[in-house]
Write a structure and sequence with these properties.
This protein is mainly α and about 280 residues long. It has 11 helices and 2 strands.
């Protein structure tokens, strides 16, 4: 398993770095959109293994919400959400199975599209932010949000590595055995330490405009959300009786299994950049 993970990472990480840093935003958006659609599809397959109608509606609802996220206005988002709720309730009128299932199916659909199709596109918004190393009052500042995106990913993935090896070599006490039996308190501590290391490396290499206090606090906050996001995705899988969300990534399972630690930190870092850097 470890060899498979390392082999996958050796191929995926250089490609990801190229897409985030050197590729145009127009192509990066396709990466985010593709991961989002696959994630919604995986969630739908777990939530509705025996109902093709519910799976199709869930994926369609996720695609609709995703489309509004890339051209975001309050009215478009509200329109998409209203369409999903109204359509879901109308479909429920014509269901022939247990009446309670109609409300449960709509609730599960809303949870899935908000979890994946609402949170994950924040990476595309983040990528389009102005370059934080340029003066904040500069005119026609080119997009430089790759720094924020890279910081978020490095902090989260550093925590994944620290948690894995910390738990493997030092793990003794279970963190939340009913949710994720493999997670340990020692692994969680190792994850936090590596979160900070990842943030410090980012500051030294390409994010000198962040203060030391900022990078430590942001790394701790994003890293903590990363761990919580991992546990929440495990809880979702267990509630659906699934071991993995999918099979598309060798050694990691599905897309949701790989990005679970990346979803929750995205809104935090994006809104921090927006409100504290004055974008």
């Amino acid at each position: 398993m470890l060899r498979t993970r390392l082999a996958t990472a050796a191929v995926a990480l250089p490609l990801l770095v190229w897409l985030v840093i050197w590729n145009p935003w127009s192509l990066f958006i396709w990466l985010v959109a593709g991961a989002t659609l696959v994630g919604v599809t995986e969630y739908s397959a777990m939530a509705f293994p025996d109902s093709r109608l519910d799976r199709l509606f869930s994926v369609a609802a996720g695609a609709l919400l995703l489309a509004t996220m890339f051209e975001p206005t309050q009215e478009r988002f509200a329109m998409a959400l209203a369409a999903v709720v109204v359509s879901g309730l109308i479909i429920g009128l014509f269901r022939s199975d247990e009446q309670r299932h109609a409300a449960e199916a709509l609730g599960l659909t809303l949870l899935g599209i908000l979890y994946v199709a609402f949170l994950l596109p924040h990476y595309a918004w983040m990528h389009a932010l102005p370059d934080p190393l340029l003066p904040r009052d500069a005119v026609d500042v080119p997009p430089g949000g790759w720094r924020w995106v890279t910081l978020t990913i490095v902090v989260a993935m550093s925590g994944d590595v620290g948690g894995y090896f910390g738990g493997r070599y030092f793990g003794r006490r279970k963190l939340m055995p009913s949710v994720s039996p493999g997670k340990t308190v020692e692994g969680s501590i190792g994850s936090v330490l590596c979160n900070m290391v990842g943030g410090v490396v980012c500051k030294l290499v390409f994010f000198q405009s962040l203060g030391w206090g900022e990078v430590i606090v942001l790394s701790l906050a994003a890293g903590s959300l990363s761990q919580v996001g991992d546990l929440c995705e495990s809880k979702i899988k267990r509630s659906f009786g699934a071991k993995d969300s999918g099979w598309i990534i060798p050694g990691h399972g599905g897309v949701l299994d790989r990005i679970d630690s990346l979803v929750f930190p995205a809104p935090l870092v994006y809104y921090y950049a927006r409100f504290f850097f004055g974008y």
